[in-house]
UniProtKB/TrEMBL annotation:
<dbReference type="InterPro" id="IPR011856">
    <property type="entry name" value="tRNA_endonuc-like_dom_sf"/>
</dbReference>
<dbReference type="GO" id="GO:0015666">
    <property type="term" value="F:restriction endodeoxyribonuclease activity"/>
</dbReference>
<dbReference type="GO" id="GO:0003677">
    <property type="term" value="F:DNA binding"/>
</dbReference>
<feature type="compositionally biased region" description="Low complexity">
    <location>
        <begin position="141"/>
        <end position="157"/>
    </location>
</feature>
<protein>
    <recommendedName>
        <fullName>Restriction endonuclease type IV Mrr domain-containing protein</fullName>
    </recommendedName>
</protein>
<feature type="domain" description="Restriction endonuclease type IV Mrr">
    <location>
        <begin position="437"/>
        <end position="551"/>
    </location>
</feature>
<dbReference type="Pfam" id="PF04471">
    <property type="entry name" value="Mrr_cat"/>
</dbReference>
<feature type="region of interest" description="Disordered">
    <location>
        <begin position="1"/>
        <end position="102"/>
    </location>
</feature>
<dbReference type="InterPro" id="IPR007560">
    <property type="entry name" value="Restrct_endonuc_IV_Mrr"/>
</dbReference>
<dbReference type="GO" id="GO:0009307">
    <property type="term" value="P:DNA restriction-modification system"/>
</dbReference>
<feature type="coiled-coil region">
    <location>
        <begin position="209"/>
        <end position="236"/>
    </location>
</feature>
<dbReference type="InterPro" id="IPR052906">
    <property type="entry name" value="Type_IV_Methyl-Rstrct_Enzyme"/>
</dbReference>
<keyword id="KW-0175">Coiled coil</keyword>
<feature type="region of interest" description="Disordered">
    <location>
        <begin position="135"/>
        <end position="172"/>
    </location>
</feature>
Length: 562
């Protein structure tokens, strides 16, 4: 039997009740705010069909909950639609993010300013006198065993009888009955006090007080012995330091450098030391901080379209701040090495500042070659103030730390963020360097020491630089180098040409000197050697690298490597 499409056999249309329709729409996530297209016709409910026996009775459906505005966002979320973002709220969130990021950048600037201040603080001298230890005994907390000594008979003995003759024998005085009575009573009191004292001592021994006191005394003796042994070992190290033993000098230097680093422990800048006993020069390798220590941004700003973009600082300011920090760390290391050398063992200090980045070879950003006289006349501690009057960082060209570092004949890279590195004056790889590995200061000291041992005195350095030195000296008439000399020594490996020999001859005539000496770590060309055989250049003497090594070994016992 076929039924009409309306669902009833008699053709009558079935109309759903409003409560059931609203419940169905609510389950499907439809919007109830839309008005119905057709008002439902109120009709009588259809008669219920009889249920089979045993079918559970359905619970009556609850009436639909009235719709509220608070339900609409939730229904939209279930249906997959999102409300349009409020422009005012989005702008507020972007402004808050800009402010938060700017505060973080300002904190980085404050940390840099604090690092610059602390890096400029003077370091305390870590010499041997300051490292000596002293022993101060600690008293035992309970001094009961010492507070009550053993009772002595002198405290109980009665006085001598009055009116007795001092010259009378003692046996006559002992016959006095009153004195004998007092003497017997005193002995009884003394014996009673001894018994009580021994009982208390036994009680203390049983309670562990005596053992505890003995342990305390043994610990104090161990402390005193440890302090004495440390001071003895320190005195032995001092003796080795005065004799310029490399291990003792390097140990003292690295201890002083580690103590100087304590003011900026949050910015590790380790420094290693190698002592060259041949030239009495300390070579320091300083690890410079990473480049991102200096903030590259000045803050953040909000653009017109609501985006947050960074505000970059000028590259020149970033470079200047990093060089300023590196210069202060280098000056602090030089000050620590100079302050610890109270026995004048060091003749000079070479410091190299290295930047070590992952995946790249180390780059030397600064190198200092200073002798002891230069360190003594240079104030190595810059002023703690690094900000200008207007609150911005001072110009690097007028920064005190960089000016003092350049006064020590330092070479500094102009751009630490680029690939511009400098050639270090000396390396810390070998304690016995080759002649070409000597720094300019070491080379100048070596030339002067060799020629002074040969007989030249009254040195007057006219010019000194990375390439070598030019000086005049006087030799006694009875010495091996008599007369007035003009010395030109170069530390480069380039061969000396004939033009340089001619230039030295002119300098000898202008100075009114007797002879000229041309020294080089390399060699001379054949033309230069032939030129010295001519009559007008016969007063010029030549010493190449092999000759310098032989003179150093003969006069100074310095076995320089080839």
């Amino acid at each position: 039997m076929q039924h009409p499409s309306d669902g009833r056999a008699d053709g009558t249309a079935t109309v759903l009740q409003p409560g059931f329709l609203a419940s169905l729409f609510r389950e499907l996530g439809a919007d109830e705010d839309e008005p119905p297209t057709q008002e439902p016709t109120e009709q009588l409910p259809a008669p219920r069909k009889p249920r089979p026996p045993g079918t559970p009775t359905r619970r009556p459906r609850s009436p639909p909950r009235p719709s509220s505005p608070a339900d609409r966002p939730r229904r939209r979320a279930r249906s997959g639609t999102r409300p349009a973002d409020d422009p005012v709220a989005a702008h507020g969130r972007a402004a808050a993010l800009t402010h938060h990021r700017t505060l973080a950048v300002q904190a980085d600037h404050e940390r840099l300013a604090d690092l610059l201040r602390r890096a400029a603080q003077p370091v305390s001298a870590m010499d041997f006198e300051s490292q000596l230890r002293s022993y101060r005994p600690k008293p035992y907390p309970d001094a009961a065993p010492d507070a009550e000594p053993e009772p002595a008979w002198a405290d109980f003995a009665p006085p001598e009888p009055a009116g007795t003759d001092p010259d009378q024998p003692r046996s006559r005085r002992l016959l006095d009955s009153g004195y004998q009575r007092e003497l017997a009573q005193a002995r009884l009191r003394h014996q009673r006090a001894l018994r009580e004292w021994r009982t208390r001592q036994a009680d203390l021994a049983d309670s562990g007080a005596v053992a505890a006191r003995q342990a305390h005394e043994e610990a104090e003796q161990a402390r005193a012995r440890a302090v004495q042994e440390y001071n003895d070992s320190l005195e032995e190290c001092r003796r080795a330091y005065r004799e310029a033993e490399p291990a003792a000098v390097e140990s003292l230097l690295e201890r002083a450098l580690a103590a100087a680093e304590g003011s900026t422990r949050d910015l590790p800048a380790p420094c290693r030391a190698v002592f060259r006993a041949l030239t009495r020069t300390a070579v320091l390798d300083l690890d410079l901080p990473p480049l991102d220590t200096v903030p590259a941004l000045s803050g953040y700003r909000l653009t017109e379209d609501g985006a947050v973009e960074p505000v970059h600082r000028p590259e020149a300011d970033v470079r200047a701040d990093y060089l300023r920090l590196a210069a202060r760390l280098a000056l602090r290391a030089l000050q620590a090495a100079d302050a610890v050398d109270t026995d004048d063992v060091l003749a000079g200090v070479v410091l190299n500042g290295w930047l070590r980045e992952p995946g790249r070879p180390p780059r030397c950003l600064l190198s200092v070659d200073a002798d002891r006289d230069a360190l003594a006349r240079t104030r190595l501690v810059p002023d703690s103030g690094h900000l200008g009057d207007d609150g911005v960082y001072a110009d690097a060209e007028h920064d005190e730390s960089l000016l003092r570092l350049r006064a020590l004949a330092a070479v500094i890279t102009p751009d630490p963020y680029g690939d511009e590195a400098v050639v270090p004056w000396g390396g810390a790889a070998a304690a016995v360097p080759a002649l070409g590995e000597l720094s300019p200061g070491e080379f100048a000291l070596l030339v002067r020491a060799v020629l002074t041992a040969g007989g030249l005195a009254d040195w007057s350095v006219r010019l000194r630089g990375p390439a070598g030195l030019v000086a005049t000296a006087e030799g006694q008439p009875d010495s091996r180098l008599p007369g007035r000399w003009v010395v030109w020594a170069s530390r480069g490996p380039a061969p000396v040409t004939a033009e340089e020999i001619a230039t030295l001859s002119e300098a000898v005539r202008e100075e009114g000197a007797d002879r000229g000496l041309r020294m080089t770590c390399g060699r001379f060309t054949d033309e230069a050697v032939d030129l010295t055989t001519e009559e007008r250049h016969q007063r010029i003497h030549l010493i190449d690298g092999q000759g310098i090594r032989e003179l150093a070994l003969t006069h100074l016992s310095l076995p320089l490597t080839a």
